[in-house]
Amino acid sequence: MCGIIGYTGFRKAAPILLDALKRLEYRGYDSAGIAVINHEIKVEKRSGYVSYLSGNMEGHVGIGHTRWATHGEPTDINAHPFVDCRNEFAIVHNGIIENHEKLKEDLIKKGHRYSSKTDSEVIAHLLEEEYEKAGDFRKAFINAINRLKGSFAIAAIHKGEKRIMGVKKESPLIVGIGDGENFLASDVPAFLPYTNRVVILEDGDVCEITPKSVSFYDMNGNPVEKKEEYIDWSPESAEKSGYEHFMLKEIYEQPVAIENTVHSLFSTHIDLKYHGKINVIACGTSYNAGFAGKYLMEKMLKIPVEMHYSSEYRTRPNVRERALSILITQSGETADTLMAAKIARKRGHETLAITNVLGSSITHHVDHVLYTSAGPEIGVAATKTFMAQLASMYYLSAKLGVDYGIINESRHEEFMEEFRRIPRLIENSLQLEDDIKKIAYELKDKEHMFYIARGINYPLAMEGALKMKEISYIHAEAYPAGELKHGPLALIRKGTPVVAIVSKDETYEKMLSNIKEVSARGAYVIAISSESEVKSYVDQWIRTPSNNPDFSTFSSAVVLQLLAYHTAKLRGCEIDKPRNLAKSVTVE
Ligand code: F6R
């Protein structure tokens, strides 16, 4: 949600800013803009796509932004960057300035004129005012940000200077270190074609970049040391590499994403205490991955694992419990999950984050971190990060089983043997794509769908339905198969598509009965199963590789992703940038 880029160096800034903004498009946005210094500050900003900007400006220092509207509609005027009254400073901002109304009122009294309806514009005016007192850009910037309340990542430029000032508080900001050029961005892919050397800012960090230097300060202006890191993502990993969409590319990257995640899990040492209770807290797809993990965790550990939506967690009373709370978030920036992490910690829980982004905000609010190493995920709909989260939950279930003395070494080894086969399982499921395409053709004109399953497959049904609705805009609902007869069966009519996920486990016979139940009412049933018997009860059978029912989740997930992808494609939807969905949701 919202993307920031800053560039100072030897190249022309505008093309670099526009290219970087395109790379940040996946975060979701509804307007975009850039500001470049060439004698004076020139701004170009528009509602709509980055491609609407011409970038027709000279100059080697600039900032850019993709905006996701929160305060004020997505209009040209409300797009970033914003300048002060004298056009001497330009700023871009992600986050929310909670005290903007009061600041604005005071500044207006002092003669400042506002052009937009945003909370962000106030920052440019504050800079103008502080510069009058301090006479120095860095000092003015630090004074200005100390007057802000809320969450923010900000980049600012000053006419006649080559430096860019930045600050991070609860919204990501990363410095990219080049040779004779430096960058500032909300995410690494923005500058990946130019450098892999990064410094990840933490809350309260201020940075000052010039073409030849990067320096860091705290919010009082005291210098601080920061560690440089190397990101081993290739620029190609953030390109489509011949695939029509990032989503399809990322679906196909899943075997490698899992290999890398497994490698990183095995090389991370975490020591978690036994509390007799586990909470899993997340949103959207991350919730679904955690939910599937819960089934396995309870089976392995024989202790309660409770699911919570991050946005609901704060409304839960502070019940007395000792618990390990696992926060799952691929971006590490989801505001609801960050808030839940803080609350869980305050309640005395041991906290563990599972995230895909090194140094992301969540990592500063928990006791332990497990990184999924799925690589950058550009498609807004999560696919490979889901798979990597699921694998992490499986890994954790087995690890805790041994650590807590609940499973013995030989059970653990047996489990790990299956675990290591996950990438192969996914590869085999990817071969089903042609069959899935044909079924997608049957679904393309439908407006409603159901997904049913039992046990560990139920969260998969939820994920399948979520993928379908978010990218194809078909109304898709997931139900525990046994719940259908308690109401929703009323909606099954001739031709209503019902996707049923069936494993050969203790739920098998009951699933067959549920399939017969919907078939009898005319449903068009698509079964995802390794069992050939299922074929005789359904309209379409997608035969997944035969395997251990605990691990069939990985093959079913691939089928569900491809089914959503091909249905959306046949409906002509914007698959990588579905409407109303942002890659990282930084508002509560
Ligand atoms: C769905 C999707 C969203 C995210 C959710 C949480 O495809 O991408 O539902 O899963 O917004 O995001 P993270 O995992 O970044 O906390």
CATH architecture of the largest domain: 4-Layer Sandwich
Report low-confidence residues grouped into runs of 5 or more: none
Q: What is the approximate shape?
A: globular
- Most strands sheet: 8 strands, antiparallel
Bound ligands, named by name, code or SMILES: fructose -6-phosphate
Count of runs of 4 or more consecutive helical residues: 16
Based on DSSP secondary structure assignment, what is the total number of beta strands?
A: 24
Report on this structure.
The chain folds into three domains: 3-235, 4-Layer Sandwich (Glutamine Phosphoribosylpyrophosphate, subunit 1, domain 1); 240-420, Glucose-6-phosphate isomerase like protein, domain 1 (Rossmann fold, 3-Layer(aba) Sandwich), CATH 3.40.50; 431-583, Rossmann fold. The protein is built from 16 helices and 24 strands. The strands form four sheets. It has an eight-stranded antiparallel sheet with strand order 3-2-4-1-10-9-11-14, with helices on one face. It has a six-stranded antiparallel sheet with strand order 5-6-7-8-12-13. Helix 6 packs antiparallel against helix 12. It is globular and about 80 Å long. The longest helix has 20 residues, at 384-403. It has 588 residues and is an alpha/beta fold. Bound molecules: fructose -6-phosphate (F6R). Residues 283-286, 329-331, 334, 337, 381-382, 466, 470, 584-585 line the site of fructose -6-phosphate (F6R).
